[in-house]
Write a structure and sequence with these properties.
Helix content: 25-40%
Low-confidence stretches: none
Number of strands: 9
Shape: globular
Strand order of the largest sheet: 1-2-3-9-4-7
Radius of gyration: 16 Å
Structural class: alpha+beta
Order of helices and strands: HHHHHEEEEEEEEE
Distance between the termini: 29 Å
């Protein structure tokens, strides 16, 4: 796995150690199978943003801290200049650029997500998390599967949905997709 996964794993371990919890206690508190949590903490297994959001919510820490080891400092406004958002590329298929990381106590997490194309027979990885989510496609065509229903979004299309339902995405036409994701 890549270095970013290892770094996030170290931050998860640091949080767990600060809370004085065993791996089993921490995993159980976030409803994560222990075997999976051990691999996440070791940086050996990929995870979803929704999983990090779940952990951040459970322990009242900012997702930015888990993802980037940055503490938000602004409370009146925070500017993110073009192409300057904190970026994470966990796996080859997805890249996230966080746009609101500098704002403390924010109500939403905002990302520009780039999805690289995969082989047509590659299954869609499904995840779920609490809250609400809004996606707006800037470039390409995106297959978004929500609770077993396939929806195709094109440039300019948007979708607001309940992310507690299993959902996942896939770039279409062999081309990358870029979209705005707002998670509240």
């Amino acid at each position: 796995m890549n270095d970013e996964l290892k770094q996030i794993g170290l931050r998860l371990k640091g949080l767990r150690d600060a809370l004085e919890l065993t791996k089993a206690e921490f995993a159980a508190s976030c409803d994560i199978p222990l075997e999976d949590y051990i691999e996440y903490e070791a940086g050996k297994k990929d995870f979803s943003i929704s999983l990090l959001k779940k952990i951040a919510t459970q322990y009242n820490v900012d997702i930015t801290t888990l993802m980037f080891d940055e503490e938000p400092r602004m409370n009146s406004y925070a500017i993110t200049r073009k192409e300057k958002g904190l970026a994470i590329k966990r796996v080859e298929e997805y890249q996230y650029q966080a746009l609101a990381t500098g704002f403390a106590n924010r109500k939403a997490d905002i990302f520009i997500v780039t999805v690289e194309p995969k082989a047509d027979d590659t299954p869609i990885h499904l995840s779920k998390h609490s809250g609400q989510e809004f996606n707006l496609v800037f470039k390409g065509r995106l297959l978004l599967q929500i609770n077993g229903k396939d929806l195709i979004l094109e440039k300019g299309d948007s979708l607001y949905f309940d992310p507690s339902l299993p959902h996942g995405m896939k770039a279409l036409d062999g081309k990358p997709v870029k979209f705005l994701a707002v998670i509240v």
